[in-house]
């Protein structure tokens, strides 16, 4: 039996049999590699699972088919996709790409579309809360389920078109920008990088901040009015904002703030270092912070939305498989009454 041992140089190559044409792998201790793999795998599984629960909940229960929840469904879909691409980040731990060049481009394409759709959806959520709080008298006519659906479709469509254009060279020539075998390089022209920065950070964050400052001002005025029993006066006349709308604005405000906190480090670092000056190690760290937002969103729902906790119980107890469960009034009924609820309205 002849045993062959790899030399140190060969062990550092992604494809030892290709010699110098192969990329070099990132060498780490076995314990560190295992620890990183476990952490990233856990994040990926949790992100996919929790967002899948949100998708099933909103899709199944008809009482949850509201404009705001359709926006949350879009956010969950984008976060689910981000959780899926985490798998590729795990495979790239050692700096080697073992799949085809086409899969490399697909990874970049899906990541770009998902993150862009996520940011766009957060902007739509801010607009939704702005109209609900600042113009409640016309909210039901301005923001309808169909309007929300069309806005979501348009958001995803624009994301697809935008990044299909930006990644056009990579799509047409997969692997054309690789310098060695085992590399996954996606080229983004400088102009496209600036456009991406504007569309995924500067413009969205500016819109979100302006809208939520206005929402916060109205919420403060409403709180004072409630204490003094005085009707709030706005530019649209005398009106009183529904408490549930204010509560929803606060809950979704947490989602918005967390999104901005996770989004900002990557783009601030990119602006500080210049588009070509950010180190690969720093980029990976900031990207992880960016992606972790997809895990935090459903966790926020679990803490702030009672209906989500009820839905999760119903899903795991398989109550949703019963006939008529989609008609259940999950917003007002307790889980104990769910079995009665599927055969009629909650008492």
From TrEMBL:
Q: Does the keyword Phosphoprotein apply?
A: no
- Name the residues that span the membrane: 34-58, 70-93, 105-127, 148-166, 197-220, 248-268, 280-304
Q: Which InterPro entries match?
A: GPCR_Rhodpsn, GPCR_Rhodpsn_7TM, TAAR
Could you tell me where this protein is found in the cell?
A: Cell membrane
Q: Could you list the residue ranges forming a coiled coil in this record?
A: none
Q: Which SUPFAM superfamilies match?
A: Family A G protein-coupled receptor-like
Keywords associated with the record: Cell membrane, G-protein coupled receptor, Membrane, Receptor, Transducer, Transmembrane, Transmembrane helix
Q: Which domain of life is it from?
A: Eukaryota
Q: Domain (G-protein coupled receptors family 1 profile): give its ranges.
A: 50-301
Membrane disposition:
Multi-pass membrane protein
Q: Pfam family of this protein, just one?
A: 7tm_1
Q: What is its main location?
A: membrane
Under Gene Ontology molecular function, one entry of this record is:
trace-amine receptor activity
Its GO CC terms are: plasma membrane
Query: Which family does this protein fall into?
Result: Belongs to the G-protein coupled receptor 1 family.
Put simply, this protein is called Trace amine-associated receptor 8a-like
Species source reads Gouania willdenowi
Recorded name of the encoding gene = LOC114455056
